Each structure stands twice: as C-alpha cells, then as structure tokens.
C-alpha cells in the first residue's frame, strides 16, 4: 500500500506544474482570433476617414503652359478619338474621393503609334507624364483605385450615362491624378491605363490671368504628337483649335 502512495506523490507534483502551460495556449488562440477580427473590421470599416482634398496645398506656378490641352502624348504614342469641349465636367480622384471638375475639356484614348507596334508600357507612359507635368509646376495628387463604395456613391448615372467618368469608367484600374495651379486657373489631368491602351482627361478650370511674368516653356501639340480626331468640337466663335492637318488621319 505504501508503495502505491509513494508512486502517487510524484504525479501530484507533476499535475500542478503542467497547468500553467495550458493557459498560454488558450490565450494565444484568443489573441490571434481577436487580431484577425480587428484586421478584418479595419479593412471593411476604416476607423479613420481620409481628409478632404485641399487645393490650397498645391503650389502655384507662373510658367507658361502653351496651348490647351498643354500636354502631348509621349514619344511613340498618339491620342486617338479626341473630344474637345469648351465646357464639360469630369470626375477626378483625389484623397480617395471622386470630385467633379468643370471647365474646358480634352478627352482621348492613348495608343501606340502605328509605326511602333510594341506593347503599351504603363511605367514609361506614367513617367513621361510625371516629368512633363512636374516641369511646369504640377504635382501628382493621387495614384489610387476608386473603391467600390466610392463608385456606388457617385453612381452609374453620373459616371456612364452622363459620360462624366471617361477615365474612371475603366473600373478597377489605378488612376494617376495631377493638378496644376497656374495664374488664376487650375489644370487637372487624369490618366488610366492597361497593357493595351490608356485614356486621358485634361480640364482647365477657370481662366489664366494675363500680364504676369512667364517662363519660356512653350510646346506645340501638333509637332510632338499625332492626333486622330473624332467628334471635334469648336469654340463659341466657331474656330477649330490649330492643328496641322497633315497629322490627321
């Protein structure tokens, strides 16, 4: 009988010693679960909303932009199915929000020149616009994809039916948005691209103030990029923007 009692004594000491090892296992499982729930909640319902876009933080420039639409297609590329309007409205993405911008409007598809059949390069095109726009004082304010919630907030009627989402309407594709404040006016540029072609929208909001000191940064769109026109619109005096007719298809 004593032999059995002595045999039980070590077991009694071992059992309490085993108990603490169970607690961390349960605690760790709980921690992992809580972290996963918190992460999922944060992703679905952001705790902190993005601040509204602040135009006053965009630096001003007095450099001359040349003629509207100011920025030619990069070398090896061309604008196709160009549409001009002297008063139009489009949605631009900044700080996660789609904002309507109204003014003189240029919309076009961006494709490779026929003599250059190589694949469309998203990185090269983006770098080209980054450089062009920065050279006249513009800044990139967004490189983002509109969320499903934001697209639904604006609605299909605005984006598609009223044709105010030329670049946004690609859907699920990153938008590069640029803004330039120049002599009393704003210039907005938005670019969306895939591996085949791109779409660009340029809007001049307001009128430039004349008589201020200007830099020598002129550029002629007709000399730097082929353009194929479709539904070309004229201004209020019936004057078509100057373009070399030899460059038109």
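^ structure tokens above, recovered residues below v
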């Amino acid at each position: 009988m004593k032999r059995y009692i002595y045999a039980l004594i070590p077991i009694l000491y071992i059992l309490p010693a085993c108990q603490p090892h169970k607690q961390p296992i349960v605690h760790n499982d709980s921690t992992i679960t809580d972290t996963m729930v918190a992460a999922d909640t944060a992703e679905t319902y952001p705790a902190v909303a993005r601040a509204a876009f602040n135009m006053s933080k965009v630096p001003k420039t007095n450099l001359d932009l040349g003629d509207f639409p100011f920025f030619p297609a990069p070398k090896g590329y061309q604008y196709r199915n160009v549409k001009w309007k002297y008063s139009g409205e489009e949605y631009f993405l900044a700080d996660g929000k789609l904002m309507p911008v109204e003014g003189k409007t240029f919309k076009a598809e961006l494709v490779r020149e026929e003599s250059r059949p190589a694949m469309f390069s998203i990185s090269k095109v983006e770098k080209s616009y980054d450089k062009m726009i920065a050279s006249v004082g513009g800044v990139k304010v967004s490189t983002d994809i509109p969320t499903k919630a934001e697209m639904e907030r604006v609605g299909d009627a605005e984006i598609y039916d009223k044709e105010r989402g030329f670049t946004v309407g690609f859907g699920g594709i990153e938008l590069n948005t640029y803004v330039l404040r120049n002599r009393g006016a704003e210039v907005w540029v938005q670019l969306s691209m895939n591996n085949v072609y791109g779409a660009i929208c340029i809007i001049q909001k307001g009128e430039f103030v004349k008589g201020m000191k200007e830099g020598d940064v002129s550029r002629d769109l007709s000399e730097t990029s082929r353009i194929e026109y479709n539904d070309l619109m004229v201004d209020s005096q019936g004057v078509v923007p100057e373009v070399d007719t030899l460059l038109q298809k």
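The two ends are 109 Å apart (CA to CA).
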